[in-house]
Amino acid sequence: MGDTEMAGHEAGQKDRMRLEARSLAAFRGERLVLEGVSFRLEAGGALLLRGANGAGKSTLLRALAGLIPLAAGTLLWEGEDALADLSQHARRLGYLGHQDAVKPALSVAENLGLAARGGDVGVALAALNLAPLADLPARFLSAGQRRRLAIARLLLARAPLWLLDEPGNGLDDASLIALGAISDRHRAAGGMVIAATHHDLPFPSASQLFLS
To answer: What domain range is 112 assigned to?
Structure first.
């Protein structure tokens, strides 16, 4: 298969990607915080998880990532059980939690290098306006800069599904615009985004799921 044919084949695979949740339930500790959660997300789509604190937004993201077990329901990837092989499922994911998981002794560029799966660190630095900080040890970053570094790692994960927990926390207006731009490019390439948020994120045509 030639390069052009291969690119078309990969694009076709991305066009067919879909994630479907059927009647999901999950516990946080000993309390059932999610029950009967269903949605479907196609390639290029975005879903915003809304709800009050404690409604289960973070729990749902962790369940979707396979980090906690489902109490009930089924999660399907392209019609197959997404959680049957957790290592394979992990390769589909770019996960951004509340904690930025930055290694403080390493520079900004070195932190990104650890996350790279063939992606261009320079491109990721530029996308989040981090190039001037590339050689700075991460321990000197502000909270907003650490958040931008964590978001930049998503670009290097080369994963079709992004799961984002309050991605706008600590970001100024310019950084929110940058987040919207990289999300747009990810979705245009067939990727999907699910974000738990209290903020109005710049994700055009995103669906919303309200948890209570």
So the answer is: 42-69+85-210
